[in-house]
Design brief:
The chain is an alpha/beta fold. Helix content is 33%, strand content 21%. It has 13 helices and 21 strands.
């Protein structure tokens, strides 16, 4: 079985930055990702033979990613990239199992950096399972990489800067956006300006997005939320309303918009399946995406030799992920004796200062955009919560009345979270739904238990187990 001093799972901004820093000190690294090429979601590269029909759609983040990819290329001799490698389990004695090219394999690691990102926050409401309702990230992938609009009359509903990014990209390909619903308001100006001061790169981006949306004449409706999607076989209308500061709808302000597509963007949830399998301690932080691993300043978790960086350790964006990745890479190099105490201290100080500056800005945005109680009061008893197993909120309530004391007892009673997505869609939603319900008061707050395989793996692949990986030369 192969062994490695450092394995990095996830080749997005955080994973790439970690690999670059560790490689500078001669550490041989195995970098793994489910995708064919490095870059992750935000710095995604095109597959061979494909290119953007409109280069303007790639945006400023794509250009920033090119700089990171150039740094990676300079350290290539120390980095082995395993592409299309799906890590499905972590086990005792620093053992990692993954699927690649229709086979399964394992390897041992001395140090592990997890940079597996986040996924979009699911928000159940009446009609959210209708065709035509999709996430903002899914819509962005269609628009940015293929120049394809998800519909003809589009409503953007949610909170946070991704809405503005997506709107600008849709404008550039001729999309018709009926409105942008922003659930939050700006809040007090003083803390907002303190957090924004000095963040000129973010401010420039925000100004460009807002200006282009304004020029296109698209209504930006602050303190508004979607209540219901209506239609027969697909979305035909969206019921919206103004909300109070807790995002509870003011029903007297209800109105209906004729739309065929609803793009939802209520933030992100950290992917913690692997940190939970690694038996890391977790804490709950609503500002950073829910359950996240506890970490030291070095980005090491409570499990020795396991580090977590980027959105999987608290949703904070690509620039934060890069600084955290660099800190983790340097920390591993120091732990392996490849970096002196003095040099490590100087390098880490530089990146921690940058991280502190970025974090001030993120905290302000997160406080403005964090989900409020009213968001999880939209679902009624007939609203499907677990799409895989088709379990509605009424069935969850019945399980609690029958004696279920926490989310895992509800899971055992109803099969919620046992479907193909393994609770990624319903887990965060059911935790928030239950926390705000009167009938759930006093019950234990927890997250769904996780077991390997964390993603679907075929029995055929497990049967063809091999200790010989299939490295890729494509970056």
């Amino acid at each position: 079985m192969r062994e490695a001093d450092l394995v990095i799972v996830g080749a997005g901004p955080g994973g790439l930055a970690a690999a670059i820093e560790a490689a500078k000190y001669g550490i041989d690294i195995i970098l793994m990702d489910e995708n064919p090429k490095v870059g992750g979601q935000i710095y995604r590269q095109f597959n061979p033979g494909l290119r953007a029909a409109n280069q303007k759609l790639l945006g400023r983040d794509f250009k920033r990613g090119q700089k990171l990819l150039k740094e990676l290329e300079e350290q290539q001799k120390h980095i082995e990239f395993l592409n299309e490698a799906l890590v499905w389990g972590l086990f005792n004695k620093h053992l990692l199992s993954y699927q690649q090219q229709q086979t399964s394999a394992s390897l041992k690691y001395k140090n592990l950096i997890l940079a597996i990102g986040a996924y979009e926050r699911p928000v159940p409401f009446p009609g959210w399972t209708l065709p035509g309702v999709l996430t903002a990230g899914g819509a962005q992938t269609l628009v940015k990489t293929q120049g394809v609009l998800p519909g003809e009359n589009i409503l953007l509903a949610g909170t946070g800067p991704l809405q503005l990014v997506l709107a600008e990209q849709m404008i550039k390909v001729g999309g018709k956006i009926e409105a942008i619903l922003e659930a939050s308001d700006l809040g007090p100006w003083l803390p907002l300006m303190k957090g924004l001061w000095g963040q000129w790169e973010y401010l420039a981006d925000g100004w460009c997005y807002w200006r282009n949306i304004k020029r296109a004449g698209i209504p930006l409706m602050r303190r508004h939320i979607i209540l219901e999607a209506q239609g027969g076989e697909k979305v035909e209308e969206a019921v919206i309303a103004r909300v109070d500061r807790d995002w509870r709808p003011m029903l007297s302000t209800r109105q209906t918009l004729k739309v065929d597509t609803i793009c939802l963007g209520f933030g992100f949830v950290s992917s913690t399946e692997l940190t939970r399998l690694a038996k890391c301690e977790h804490l709950y932080d609503p500002l950073l995406g829910g359950w996240i691993p506890w970490r030291r300043e070095t980005m090491e978790t409570s499990t020795s030799g396991v580090y977590s960086v980027g959105d999987c350790a608290g949703v904070a964006g690509s620039l934060v992920a890069i600084e955290e990745g660099r800190i983790a890479g340097l920390s591993v190099a120091h732990a392996l004796g490849c970096l002196s105490d003095n040099h490590a201290r100087k390098q880490l100080y530089k990146h921690r200062k940058r991280l502190e500056k970025l974090s001030r800005f993120r905290r302000v945005l997160d406080e403005i955009s964090k989900p409020r109680a009213g968001l999880y009061e939209l679902a009624d008893d007939d609203t499907v919560i677990c799409r895989c197993e088709e379990i509605n909120l009424g069935e969850v309530k019945q399980a609690i009345k029958a004696g279920a004391l926490d989310i895992n007892e509800i899971k055992r009673t109803t099969r919620i979270g046992m479907g193909r997505c393994q609770g990624r869609m319903c887990g965060p939603a059911i935790s928030e739904l239950l926390a705000g319900q009167p009938f759930f008061k006093g019950l234990v707050q927890s997250h769904l238990s996780v077991r390997p395989p964390i993603k679907p793996v075929s029995l055929a692949n497990l049967a063809t187990y091999s200790d010989k990986p299939h490295p890729s030369t494509q970056n």
